[in-house]
Amino acid sequence: MFVLIAAAMGGGLATAALAHPLGPAWAAAAVPFGGSAAALLAAGLLAQRRGPDAAAVDLDGQADLMAAALREIAAHGRAVDERRAGAAETAPREDRRGVA
Hints:
Structural class: mainly alpha
Distance between the termini: 57 Å
Strand content: under 5%
Order of helices and strands: HHH
Radius of gyration: 29 Å
Low-confidence stretches: none
Protein backbone atom coordinates (compact mmCIF):
# COMPACT_ATOMS: atom_id res chain seq x y z
CA MET A 1 0.00 0.00 0.00
CA PHE A 2 2.78 2.38 0.90
CA VAL A 3 4.48 1.53 -2.39
CA LEU A 4 1.39 2.63 -4.28
CA ILE A 5 1.14 5.87 -2.29
CA ALA A 6 4.80 6.65 -2.94
CA ALA A 7 4.41 5.84 -6.64
CA ALA A 8 1.35 8.09 -6.92
CA MET A 9 3.08 10.97 -5.15
CA GLY A 10 6.27 10.57 -7.18
CA GLY A 11 4.35 10.31 -10.43
CA GLY A 12 2.32 13.39 -9.59
CA LEU A 13 5.40 15.42 -8.76
CA ALA A 14 7.19 14.25 -11.90
CA THR A 15 4.16 15.13 -14.01
CA ALA A 16 3.99 18.58 -12.41
CA ALA A 17 7.68 19.14 -13.12
CA LEU A 18 7.27 18.08 -16.74
CA ALA A 19 4.08 20.11 -17.30
CA HIS A 20 5.30 23.26 -15.51
CA PRO A 21 6.69 24.90 -18.70
CA LEU A 22 3.11 24.92 -20.05
CA GLY A 23 1.98 26.94 -17.03
CA PRO A 24 1.04 26.34 -13.41
CA ALA A 25 -2.61 25.64 -14.24
CA TRP A 26 -1.64 22.90 -16.69
CA ALA A 27 0.78 21.47 -14.18
CA ALA A 28 -1.87 21.42 -11.44
CA ALA A 29 -4.37 19.78 -13.80
CA ALA A 30 -1.88 17.12 -14.90
CA VAL A 31 -0.84 16.02 -11.39
CA PRO A 32 -3.82 13.70 -10.70
CA PHE A 33 -3.45 12.01 -14.08
CA GLY A 34 0.28 11.45 -13.69
CA GLY A 35 -0.10 10.21 -10.13
CA SER A 36 -2.89 7.82 -11.07
CA ALA A 37 -0.93 6.49 -14.03
CA ALA A 38 2.15 5.90 -11.87
CA ALA A 39 0.09 4.14 -9.18
CA LEU A 40 -1.58 1.96 -11.81
CA LEU A 41 1.82 1.04 -13.27
CA ALA A 42 3.18 0.23 -9.81
CA ALA A 43 0.12 -1.91 -9.01
CA GLY A 44 0.58 -3.83 -12.24
CA LEU A 45 4.25 -4.42 -11.51
CA LEU A 46 3.48 -5.58 -7.97
CA ALA A 47 0.80 -7.95 -9.21
CA GLN A 48 3.12 -9.37 -11.85
CA ARG A 49 5.92 -9.81 -9.32
CA ARG A 50 3.62 -11.67 -6.96
CA GLY A 51 3.06 -14.42 -9.50
CA PRO A 52 0.40 -17.09 -9.97
CA ASP A 53 1.30 -18.96 -6.76
CA ALA A 54 -0.30 -16.22 -4.68
CA ALA A 55 -3.73 -17.12 -6.05
CA ALA A 56 -3.63 -20.54 -4.37
CA VAL A 57 -4.37 -19.23 -0.87
CA ASP A 58 -6.03 -21.62 1.58
CA LEU A 59 -8.83 -19.38 2.82
CA ASP A 60 -10.57 -22.20 4.69
CA GLY A 61 -7.39 -22.97 6.61
CA GLN A 62 -6.87 -19.31 7.44
CA ALA A 63 -10.48 -19.02 8.64
CA ASP A 64 -10.05 -22.10 10.84
CA LEU A 65 -6.86 -20.67 12.38
CA MET A 66 -8.58 -17.34 13.05
CA ALA A 67 -11.58 -19.05 14.65
CA ALA A 68 -9.29 -21.09 16.87
CA ALA A 69 -7.40 -17.96 17.92
CA LEU A 70 -10.66 -16.16 18.75
CA ARG A 71 -11.89 -19.13 20.79
CA GLU A 72 -8.63 -19.11 22.75
CA ILE A 73 -8.97 -15.39 23.45
CA ALA A 74 -12.58 -15.85 24.56
CA ALA A 75 -11.60 -18.71 26.89
CA HIS A 76 -8.85 -16.58 28.40
CA GLY A 77 -11.33 -13.72 28.91
CA ARG A 78 -13.81 -16.02 30.65
CA ALA A 79 -11.05 -17.31 32.96
CA VAL A 80 -10.05 -13.76 33.88
CA ASP A 81 -13.70 -12.83 34.56
CA GLU A 82 -14.16 -15.88 36.79
CA ARG A 83 -11.02 -15.02 38.77
CA ARG A 84 -12.20 -11.43 39.21
CA ALA A 85 -15.65 -12.58 40.33
CA GLY A 86 -14.11 -15.00 42.83
CA ALA A 87 -11.78 -12.33 44.16
CA ALA A 88 -14.67 -9.89 44.57
CA GLU A 89 -16.66 -12.41 46.62
CA THR A 90 -13.79 -13.13 49.01
CA ALA A 91 -12.67 -9.51 49.42
CA PRO A 92 -13.75 -7.79 52.64
CA ARG A 93 -16.48 -5.22 52.15
CA GLU A 94 -16.09 -1.77 53.56
CA ASP A 95 -18.96 0.09 55.16
CA ARG A 96 -19.07 3.45 53.42
CA ARG A 97 -22.23 4.86 54.95
CA GLY A 98 -20.39 7.35 57.13
CA VAL A 99 -17.99 8.58 54.44
CA ALA A 100 -18.95 11.89 52.81
